[in-house]
Structure to design on (231 residues):
């Protein structure tokens, strides 16, 4: 994986701000409106630098959209600035190495994304809420009571289940890391570990569907690989 220093990310961000056409209407790949200059800059930074099959910019885009659906389903009122910033920068630690290699990557993002958002023109009075959502986004973390943190946590958790969860985990294997069986074992563990951690009612309902989907895939994979012995 390619890593970027804070300086390199800020240089890339400066380039996106300088190159943005002020008259052009813009949206993300899935139609999310980029209705503020800082959102344009952060999204372009993500598209240009956060490239990875499991936790690249596409994962962030899914998280943002699913989080909105969860909030709507549970009737939660969100600050869209907070959710957008946290969704697109929560895995920053996967691309920018932490000063402390033992630091959990959500904690690393909470420390590192401030400079990026400040340079982009983000309303920094909201940054504490962004940092809280970044810290709590993983399924094994407690997201607390902040609505943006709760829905990001649940959306990120759901991305480990279903067809997309299988695709993400299996994308991590290959000639450089030939541990296909290990990825399958992790997916099996998600079936039990993730559903109890989902907070919103809507995520629990979506999670039940994705658990069934993922279990069916894994069971078929087990059968077709001779009970996993030819994986």
């Amino acid at each position: 994986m390619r890593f970027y220093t804070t300086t390199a990310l800020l240089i890339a961000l400066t380039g996106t701000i300088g190159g943005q056409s002020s008259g052009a209407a813009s949206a993300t790949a899935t139609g999310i409106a980029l209705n503020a200059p800082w959102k344009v800059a952060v999204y372009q930074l993500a598209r240009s630098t956060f490239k990875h099959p499991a936790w690249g910019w596409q994962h962030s885009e899914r998280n943002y959209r699913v989080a909105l659906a969860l909030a709507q389903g549970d009737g939660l009122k969100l600050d869209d600035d907070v959710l957008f910033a946290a969704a697109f920068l929560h895995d920053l630690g996967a691309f920018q190495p932490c000063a402390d290699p033992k630091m959990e990557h959500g904690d690393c993002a909470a420390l590192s994304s401030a400079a990026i958002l400040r340079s982009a023109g983000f309303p920094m009075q909201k940054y504490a809420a962004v940092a809280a959502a970044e810290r709590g986004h993983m399924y094994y973390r407690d997201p607390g009571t902040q609505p943006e943190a709760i829905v990001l946590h649940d959306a990120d958790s759901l991305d480990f289940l279903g067809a997309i969860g299988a695709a993400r985990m299996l994308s991590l294997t290959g000639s450089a890391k030939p541990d296909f069986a290990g990825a399958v074992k992790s997916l099996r563990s998600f079936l039990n570990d993730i559903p109890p951690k989902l907070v919103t009612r809507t995520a629990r309902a979506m999670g039940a569907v994705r658990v069934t989907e993922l279990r069916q895939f894994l069971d078929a994979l087990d059968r077709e690989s001779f009970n996993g012995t030819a994986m």
Q: What stands out?
A: The radius of gyration is 18 Å. Residues 1-144 form one domain.
